[in-house]
Fold:
Amino acid sequence: MNCSYREVCEAAARAGGEVLRGWLGRIRAREKGRNDLVTEADVESQQVIQRLVLTRFPEHLFLGEESTDEGRPDLRQAFESDTPVWIVDPLDGTTNFVHGLPAFSVSVAVSQRGRTVAGVVYDPIADECFSATAGGGAFLNGEAIRVSDCRSLDQALVAASFSAHVERDSPEIRRFVEVMMRCQAIRRFGSAALNLCYVAAGRLDGYWATSVKAWDVAAGCLILAEAGGQVTHIDGRPFSLLDPRFASSATESLHGELVEVLKAAG
Structure:
């Protein structure tokens, strides 16, 4: 069944990506909150994905970023249910998308009792489809991928995600500065799903995030884990989509070093 789920994840992600390609360059955005944009592209992408998923699995739950509060299932209750739940970000990297920056993606995952069993992240501009099933490995356009062998922070290319507006003395800034002082280089790409996949593919060595939701990272965390990477809560505890602030790394030794720096700074 996991293979079937992966196939539907991929079909849904590619369908959403096709919508985004059609909207690129002709976007009207509105604000959900400060620096929190929603576009017609987000909404249409989710509609296409939801229709495809629920046509195939009408009894399943659907949790999408653009779902209304009334139509969005409670994640904790969903994880306690035997009913599979689809966790979808129809456009991860909305700000990049609105500005025409080609760093955004579609993320589709399916979870059972709190465990992600299949996931796909699709970059519609690069036509890169990252996928994984639990216990089945991680792939990029059908070819197996693996994390890098980076073992120390001073050799690591790292990415970070946190809110755009934070105080100068906030933990987010302290973490960023402390890691920046110790790593080879640091990046902020603006798509959590792609960042996780880049660690999975060996393009990045580490990544941490404090401002993400379950739909941003459900697929990417599975893909990274299946590629041999490490994912924990930002303080080193086991990772949970119910509190998806996390640190991720290519290797265990690098992960221990990154988590210690993040904990000391935050």
